[in-house]
Specification:
Number of strands: 9
CATH class of the largest domain: Mainly Beta
Helix content: 40-55%
CATH architecture of the largest domain: Sandwich
GO molecular function: DNA-binding transcription factor activity; sequence-specific DNA binding
Strand order of the largest sheet: 1-8-3-6-9
CATH topology of the largest domain: Jelly Rolls
Shape: globular
Keywords: DNA-binding, Transcription, Transcription regulation
Protein name: AraC family transcriptional regulator
Structural class: alpha+beta
Organism: Paenibacillus psychroresistens
Pfam families: AraC_binding, HTH_18
Order of helices and strands: EEEEEEEEEHHHHHHHHHH
């Protein structure tokens, strides 16, 4: 699979601290990702045909399709996040699987792409990170923000978890092949747009990062994605607006979070893309 064809748009399903006496979680499969940190205690995770022993300070990343068991050997504390890495319009319908749930075939439309299915990655169960202290701090901050459950804290939690994902990608992306070097913007541009879509993004900024002229950037981008950078950015913003309107009624706040200069601009762009005004789209969701 080609990672450039998938938008990285995190969706946190659960973020919490598990404080437990010795325990056992029976065999289960996954639809989403689990980022798992050992704050205290000792764990044994059986996955991918191997037994993985995790001690204090270790990070673990379980990917969709990882059939696994988890055993807490002693008293344990493990901050963790269940999340989607990639955008899926059906993600609100996905769920955290339970022990015994192994067959995911009835839920194929909900399964996240696996990072290890992309040719540029080979990520182990136990992560060896270049900046473990930074990752730990980001994880703690994400959990704290997500549990506040306010509009602003949810935005901040998503920003933190985006940085977590980018850290993992930077640490584990394989050396670029000749084909990737020939198209330098394709290695980072979708993640960059997904991370900064709420801020002013210009062709000049992206071209400068890519090391090519703005005119050349637009040509190469359209060759790769079939649409212009502006159209791609607009699509990402509209998709996020649709998601936000499932939870928030304020069109003004949705407009601001999605990077539009004003509500009028947002309303025109949204109606042109969907055929509905933001208010009508929001109200139709609330009715269901």
């Amino acid at each position: 699979m080609d990672i450039e064809q998938h938008d990285i748009v995190p969706y946190i399903r659960q973020a919490d601290y598990a404080i437990r006496a010795p325990f056992w979680i029976g065999e289960r499969n996954l639809l989403d990702y689990i980022l798992f940190y050992v704050q205290e205690g000792l764990f044994e995770i059986q996955a991918r045909g191997k037994l993985h022993v995790l001690k204090e300070g270790d990070f673990c990343l379980l990917q969709p399709g990882d059939i696994h068991t988890i055993k807490g050997i002693n008293n344990t504390i493990n901050p963790h996040i269940h999340l989607d890495f990639f955008y899926n319009p059906l993600r609100a319908k996905s769920f955290i699987t339970l022990p015994g749930q192994l067959d995911m075939s009835p839920h194929l439309e909900l399964i996240q792409p696996r990072l290890n299915d992309f040719t540029v990655f080979e990520i182990p169960i136990t992560l060896q990170l270049s900046q473990p202290q930074k990752m730990r701090d980001l994880l703690f901050k994400t959990i704290e923000l997500w549990q506040r459950q306010s509009y602003i804290s949810q935005m901040q939690a998503n920003q933190c978890v985006s940085e977590i994902i980018l850290t993992v990608i930077k640490d584990y992306m394989k050396p670029q092949t000749t084909a990737l070097v020939a198209k330098p913007i394709l290695n980072w541009i979708t993640s960059y747009i997904s991370f900064y879509f709420s801020e002013p993004i210009t062709i000049q900024d992206m071209a400068k990062r890519a090391g090519i002229s703005p005119s050349r950037f637009q040509v190469v981008f359209k060759q790769a994605f079939g649409i212009s950078p502006h159209q791609y950015l607009l699509r990402v913003r509209i998709d996020h607006a649709k998601e936000l309107m499932k939870s928030f009624r304020s069109i003004q706040l949705v407009s601001e979070y999605c990077g539009f200069s004003d509500v009028h601009h947002f309303s025109n762009a949204f109606k042109k893309a969907t055929g509905y005004s933001p208010a009508k789209y929001r109200d139709s969701i609330m009715e269901h």
